From TrEMBL:
Organism whose genome encodes this protein: Streptomyces variegatus
Keyword vocabulary terms for this entry: Membrane, Transmembrane, Transmembrane helix
TM stretches of this protein: 17-37, 57-79, 115-136, 156-175, 182-204, 231-250
GO molecular function: ABC-type transporter activity
GO cellular component, one term: plasma membrane
UniProt-recorded name of the protein: ABC transporter permease
Amino acid sequence: MNLAVYTKSLSDSRRGLVGWMLGTAAVGMMYASTYPSQKDNTASLPEALRESLHIDATAAGYLQASVFGVILPLLAMIYGAATGSRAVAGEEEFGQLDLVLAHPLTRTRLVLQRFAALATGAGAISALVWLALLAIRDSAELTSVTPAELLAQCMNLALLGIVFGALALGLGAAFGRRNVALAGTAAIGLLAYTAHTFAAQIGADRLAYLSPFHHYIGGQPLRHGFQWADIGILAATASALVALGTWRFARRDINT
């Protein structure tokens, strides 16, 4: 089968993927382009108030807090969950998985090629986000953030989507039910975001290190560029999730 499953997966999802790419890039551009007005509004606040609320009026601070801090990671998680849950469990629920496996194709290769297609999609989405932000970098007064720093954050965005895609794919492969994959991914995603956001406030700083969101943005790539340790942890997490799901998938009966 070589890479037939990988190429077929990308071909079948090309319209949806183009929509994700254009939509995510448009959202990123829209929020990033408001930085000049937000900066002016922030500058009008008393300095004591800005310090008490920990408001960072720099371009990197704004992008980290709004663009890459909330909306884009949410979209990346939704893309990963939706795509990963369909990869195996979706076809199994519709009774199509046995037809695919009737070809000379192992279950392991099926999962890995579907995961590779998911990762390619996440990378394509993040690449277009990067290009879109570069296109408005001057007009939106974001020049203090270098193209390399934007690329570093966009790479982490892709890895975040891949991690949650791997989680959904692994759960779907392990249990064969798409609703289990979606619900499990949503629940773990909520817990992970909560741990990243509130760990410091409850005096449990180390808890944040268990969250992929911490490794996605905690190292502040928009200020410091590529954080290779965080990149490695995100990649290793995705690989482990896929490996566990594949192991279980290879050992259970398939619902046909």
